[in-house]
Each structure stands twice: as C-alpha cells, then as structure tokens.
User: Which sequence fits this backbone?
C-alpha cells in the first residue's frame, strides 16, 4: 500500500522532519543501489528524503517530495540496534573502517562507523568525507555526507542509511587513482566555476557543486588531487554546449539543491 502525501505531511507536522527519517527509515533505503536490466547495470537513486530534510528543510514541499521519491515498501529492511565496540582504539577504528568502506562491507562498517562517530565525530566525518571524495563525483556521495553532517543526529537509523549508500552504491576510483596530482590554483578554479552561469543549473553542474561543497568544508585536510578532480569535471562542462547539458532534466529537489549550494559556496 502506497503512503499518501497527506500521511507524510501529517507525520512531519506532528513529529518533525528529522523524526520522519527515523519513522520511515526502514522503507526509504534500498537493499541494493543497482539492478540488472537486459544485461545492463542500472543505478538506483540515492536516499533523497534524508538529503531534502537536511539541506532543504525550509521547503516543506521538497521535503515531502524527498520522502515520496524514497519510500518503497518493497525495499523494507529491518534496522536492528548497532552494537558498540568500546574495546577498539580510535586509531584502529579509523584504519579498519576505511578498509571496510573501500571493500563495500556494509554490515561490518555499521559497527565500526557507529563506534568512531560516537567517540570522535570529527574524525568520523573526516574519514567518510575523504572516502566520498575519492569516489566518482557523479555518484553524489559527497552530497549524502554533507547532509549527514548537517543533521547532527546520533541515531542508529541515520548511521544505517549513510553506510548503506556509501557501501552499496558500487565505488569507482578511476579518476582518483589515475589523475596525476599537480599544483592547482584554487582561486582560479572557483573563478572558472562562477562564470559557468546557467551551466551550473544542470545535472553536471549539481555533480560539481556538491563535490566542491564538501571539498571546501574539508579544505584544510585535503590535497590538490581532489581539486584536480574538480578541474577535470570543470573542463568537461566548459567544453559542452548548454543545450546538451540541459537535455538531462533536473527535478524539483535537484533544482533546490543547486540553489542551496550556490547560496552557500563562496565563488
């Protein structure tokens, strides 16, 4: 049975949007973030409910739309309590968690992720930010990490939803592994992004902005390799005609996210 808009709205009005994430958490995730159709891999959309609540909280219509896009009772999963691991040192937690994320090990990353997050949230955030930025920009993992950070919720359900997408959306480290690191003029990069204008209001523009946003947040701990990835995407957008970029239409939430990033990133 489909959950109607009115039901989502009533829940949010009574308990709040953040509590709605908890309330609907078992039906807004995916068992897998890809499917096989006609011998082709098709990726499934990420959790837009969590992202809309975190970054578009002032627009109730977009928040409700985020839940509409994410809720799928056929994907229901029971979220159990995540055990603590108090006997593991912070250093070991960091090292093991990064390896687990790299290996796409969902079940084990839950325990190590929760323990590190509860003991040192900044180290946890630094680690998942680096992991998300190493991956293919188009998977929009930095978008989810930024949303998670803004929510500031220490709940098993939120950790579950974060780790689910980070590990189940199959990683692609091609650009990170193969780009030759060079010194980047970061001011020049931002100037070039600013003059893209309407090209930023596209799917490719959103991919660039959500990645840049997280890079800016973690600028003090990142190398020029991440700016090299930005430059690569920037060059692609610069060369492409606006008509071609706009062929892949934005939905309402994506338009809202672009406005959010344009007002929050200093270009």
Assistant:
């Amino acid at each position: 049975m489909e959950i109607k808009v009115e039901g989502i709205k009533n829940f949010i009005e009574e308990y709040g949007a953040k509590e709605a994430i908890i309330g609907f958490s078992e039906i807004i995730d995916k068992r897998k973030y890809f499917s096989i159709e006609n011998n082709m891999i098709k990726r499934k959309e990420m959790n837009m409910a969590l992202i809309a609540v975190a970054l578009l909280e002032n627009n109730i219509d977009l928040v409700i739309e985020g839940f509409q896009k994410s809720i799928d009772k056929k994907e229901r999963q029971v979220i159990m309590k995540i055990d603590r691991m108090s006997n593991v040192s912070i250093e070991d937690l960091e090292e093991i968690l990064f390896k687990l994320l790299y290996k796409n090990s969902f079940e084990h990353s839950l325990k190590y992720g929760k323990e590190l997050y509860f003991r040192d949230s900044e180290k946890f955030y630094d680690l998942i930010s680096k992991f998300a930025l190493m991956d293919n920009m188009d998977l929009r993992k930095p978008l989810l990490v930024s949303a998670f950070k803004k929510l500031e919720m220490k709940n098993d359900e939120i950790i579950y939803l974060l780790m689910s997408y980070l590990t189940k959306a199959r990683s692609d480290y091609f650009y990170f592994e193969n780009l030759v690191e060079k010194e980047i003029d970061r001011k020049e990069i931002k100037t070039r992004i600013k003059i893209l204008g309407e090209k930023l209001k596209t799917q490719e523009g959103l991919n660039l902005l959500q990645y840049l946003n997280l890079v800016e947040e973690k600028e003090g701990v990142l190398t020029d390799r991440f700016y090299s990835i930005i430059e690569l995407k920037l060059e692609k957008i610069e060369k492409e005609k606006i008509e071609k970029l706009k062929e892949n239409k934005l939905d309402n939430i994506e338009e809202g996210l672009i406005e959010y990033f344009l007002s929050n990133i200093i270009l």
